[in-house]
Amino acid sequence: MNSNCTYKMIVLIVFSFLFVRCVEPPSFDIIPEINDISFSADTVTCNSDFFMYILFQDGDGDIGLPADSAKNNLFITESRTNFTDPFTIPEVEENGKITDISGTINVALSELCINVNDLSQRPGCTIEGISINTISYKVQMLDNEGNMSNEFTSPELIIKCE
């Protein structure tokens, strides 16, 4: 009875080893690709902090810059004024021999509503007659070889003006 259990255990270990060896790592294009954008909330209040989550993949893993870099590699354009905020994606550490990477970049955003009277500036919630505003973002990222990703537009975010 004990040898039967040992035999089953050996078969299970061999099968597991063969299965793990057959699993192929992902293979992505070397040009970065943004697959999805979401937010920490669907509705935010004026000037509250919130997060944008950018789902991406890159075939050669050359995303990110050293912490002391003066370059920007993430560009977020808001829909109301077409103003582009540049950001820097931090360096991604290599993890073994696989260069293909995918993941989520978290970006903290705020200051959606500023007290303004000139609509050529960022629209604010305190402009007469505006009680709810919406915004969406276009996002692109640049890898270290100069490959620009696709431009991905976020869903609309609702801003409740108080």
Brief summary:
The chain has 162 residues and is an alpha+beta fold. It is 13% helix and 32% strand.
General description of the model:
This protein is α+β, with helices and mostly antiparallel strands and 162 residues long. It is 13% helix and 32% strand. The protein has one helix spanning 2-22; strands at residues 33-39, 43-45, 50-58, 74-78, 84-87, 101-109, 132-135, 137-141, 152-153, 157-160. The strands form 3 sheets. The chain has a 4-stranded antiparallel β-sheet with strand order 5-4-8-9, with no helix packed on it. The protein has a 3-stranded antiparallel β-sheet with strand order 1-3-6, with no helix packed on it. Strand 4 (74-78) and strand 5 (84-87) form a beta hairpin. The longest helix has 21 residues, at 2-22. The chain starts with a helix and ends with a strand. The model is unreliable at 115-122 (pLDDT under 50).
Keywords:
1 helix; three-stranded antiparallel sheet; 10 strands; four-stranded antiparallel sheet; 162 residues; alpha+beta
Layout of helices and strands, plus pairs?
Layout lengths: L1 H21 L10 E7 L3 E3 L4 E9 L15 E5 L5 E4 L13 E9 L22 E4 L1 E5 L10 E2 L3 E4 L2
Parallel strand pairs: 2-10
Antiparallel strand pairs: 1-3, 3-6, 4-5, 4-8, 7-10, 8-9
Main beta sheet strand tally, sense and closure: 4 strands, antiparallel
Mean pLDDT: 78
Based on Cα principal axes, name the global outline: extended
Structural class: alpha+beta
Radius of gyration: 23 Å
- The helicity comes to 10-25%
Share of β-strand residues: 25-35%
Uncertain runs are: 115-122
What series of H and E elements makes up the topology?
Answer: HEEEEEEEEEE
Number of helices: 1
How far apart are the first and last residues' alpha carbons, in Å?
73 Å
How many β strands by DSSP? 10
| Strand arrangement across the biggest beta sheet | 5-4-8-9
